[in-house]
Amino acid sequence: MKLKIALLLILLMLLSGCTEKEETSLKLLVPMGAPSIAVIPVLNENIHSVNLVSGTDPLQAALISPNPEYDIIIAPVNLGASLISKNSSQYRLWGVVTWGNLYIVGENEEVFGSEGTLALFGENAVPQKIFDVVKEKININMNVAYFPSVNDAQAQLLTQKASAAMLAQPLAAATIAKAKEGGKELKIIANLQSLWKESTGTENYPQAAIFVLESSYDNNKTSIEKQISDMKDYVDACWGESSTLEADITSLTPEKLGLPSAKLVATVFKGMNVKIEAALDVEEELKAFLQLFGLTNIRELIIN
């Protein structure tokens, strides 16, 4: 009898141990493109549900939903922060996923003094706000024109209707490669992140961020923190060695992630500035950027 009781106790302990190790299944909403790199380990694990979407409309809809279905949403930091400040969202800011990745591409720096056209995108949005902060550092004499999308700006440059264009990585690298195929030499002639640092004194400006549903965080903090930690570890490892990233993108397919070729992304990964940082660790960077949108009380945005 004693042996049976002992065996039963051992069995109960083993079952208890298994239960503790089980992860709570989380639901994530993530935009395609550079932010999708952060959730590659989540997709590979196949434990949690990840919904990859195009554009900001589904992100905004999910952030303001009265019946939230996602535990974690990755969205533009200014979008989520603005909604939180208006008490329109049940989500709070955990931290930053992607940082500035804007570059001006042209034949050489001399075009800035020419009378040619500089093709820009993102009028009245983040790209214009960043450009307006740093443009005095470039000494531009060009005609500045805004186009509906980054792809339209790229087209202006490739068809030689513009002498230079502001582009985001990895499209900037893809544009340089495409121009070379046609016998035209282009290069990066301005790094807006470096110019932002000169202008503001902060390292970089945040773009996409992690927003966590408050009720989920209260109930599943351990699971959420573990998942974000795994994402951070993956991204940090990519900064040291990008071969795994290339293999993972190939396996998941660039189309699913909203990325160009796996090889190109691996080559320009550092220029894409995917780096996960907790909000309180980059508070000054958040302040410098969000004040462009009239948001100054950063602490009220952050998950506790």
Would you give an account of this structure?
With 304 residues, the chain is an alpha/beta fold. It folds into two domains: 24-100 and 205-301, Periplasmic binding protein-like II (D-Maltodextrin-Binding Protein, domain 2), CATH 3.40.190.10; 102-200, Periplasmic binding protein-like II (D-Maltodextrin-Binding Protein, domain 2), CATH 3.40.190.10. It contains 13 helices and eleven strands. Strands 2-1-3-10-4-11 form a six-stranded mixed β-sheet, with helices on both faces. Strands 7-6-8-5-9 form a five-stranded mixed β-sheet. Strand 6, helix 5 and strand 7 (143-147) form a beta-alpha-beta unit. Helix 5 (126-134) crosses helix 8 and helix 6 (150-158) packs parallel to helix 7. It is globular. The model is unreliable at 13-21 (pLDDT under 50).
In DSSP terms, counting alpha (H) and pi (I) runs of 4 or more, how many helices?
13
On the 0 to 100 scale, the average pLDDT is 92
Number of E-type strands: 11
- Category from helices, strands and their pairing: alpha/beta
What general form does the structure show? globular
List the helices and strands and how they pair.
Layout: H1 2-21, E1 27-31, H2 40-45, E2 49-53, H3 57-64, E3 72-76, H4 77-85, E4 91-98, E5 102-106, E6 117-121, H5 126-134, E7 143-147, H6 150-158, E8 164-168, H7 171-181, E9 187-191, H8 192-200, E10 208-213, H9 214-240, H10 243-252, H11 254-257, H12 262-272, E11 274-278, H13 283-290
Helix pairs in contact: 5-8, 6-7, 10-12
List keywords for this structure.
304 residues; alpha/beta; D-Maltodextrin-Binding Protein, domain 2; 2 domains; six-stranded mixed sheet; five-stranded mixed sheet; 13 helices; 46% helix; 19% strand; globular
